[in-house]
Amino acid sequence: GASVLTCMFLVYVQFLVCSVVPGLTYRCMDLNLSRVPTEIPSSTQNLDLSFNPLGSLGSNNFAAVPALKFLDLAR
């Protein structure tokens, strides 16, 4: 299987860790995110943002992720 990498990025002066399977999955569930991270790789097909207090989402929030096939926004 694909190796799982971990990426860290800065959001509102707080380090958050998302689980990444390169070219396939980006998981940022339950990280108290209030916005969609801008660091999502464009090759991501599965994006898990579940259980985050995201505000409103616009049509351009995922424009930089053209390969996106599955988006989980469950609360």
TrEMBL record:
SUPFAM superfamilies: L domain-like (SSF52058). InterPro entries: LRR_dom_sf (IPR032675). It comes from the Eukaryota. This is Uncharacterized protein. It comes from Crocodylus porosus (Saltwater crocodile).
